[in-house]
Amino acid sequence: MKLPSYVRKPSFPFAAEIMLALCCVLPVHAAVHPIQHSAREQINALVLTAASHEIDALAHKQQWQDYRYTFNIYIPSAVSNSALCASAPQITSSASPEMALSRMNFVVTCPGNAGWKYNVAVRPDVSVPVVMPKSLIARDAVITADDLQLKKFNISNQREGLITNMDEAI
């Protein structure tokens, strides 16, 4: 027997909307707060966060615009024998800030009796728009804005001498 629409429960139309909202919110929550099942996952998450903060601070200090970065994280293989840290692991940076573009070193420690301590190395790849010539520029030529372009460049192995502002080069 089919009931007319005015006799049905009024909350049913909202059940579909609630289910849709949960399907959208739960994956986002899981992505922001992933469940960590091993010491390797704990260390990786902690090192990613710390390395990101270091690069972001360097970018702010150098006034980089539109920068992107990825990390190559080197976690010792002995971590696979370590248990998940019951408390929050501690992390300290053991590299100088000026070396952040070439190599970052972190010491990750799990406090307690069954704790562990590992040295983790991170090699970043940082791309920043850098001023480059569009073509060959003759010696003693006056450089204009038409001669230059901003092009993404991996600056991870560079020490000095990069120009990121067109006005500085002109």
What does the model show?
This protein is an alpha+beta fold and 170 residues long. It has one domain (37-169). Helices cover 29% and strands 25% of the residues. It contains 3 helices and 5 strands. Strands 1, 2, 3, 4 and 5 form a 5-stranded antiparallel β-sheet that branches. A hairpin with a 5-residue loop joins β3 (104-110) and β4 (116-133). The N and C termini lie far apart (82 Å).
Describe the SSE topology.
Blueprint: H1 12-32, H2 39-62, E1 68-74, E2 90-93, E3 104-110, E4 116-133, E5 148-154, H3 166-169
Antiparallel strand pairs: 1-4, 2-3, 3-4, 4-5
Characteristic key phrases:
single chain, 170 residues, alpha+beta, 3 helices
Structural class by helix and strand composition: alpha+beta
Instruction: Give the DSSP E fraction (strand runs of 2 or more residues).
Output: 25-35%
Mean pLDDT: 82
Net shape: flat
Helix content range: 25-40%
Uncertain runs with pLDDT below 50, 5 residues or more? none
The figure for the number of domains is 1
Specify Rg, calculated over alpha carbons.
26 Å
Number of strands: 5
Q: What composes the largest sheet?
A: 5 strands, antiparallel
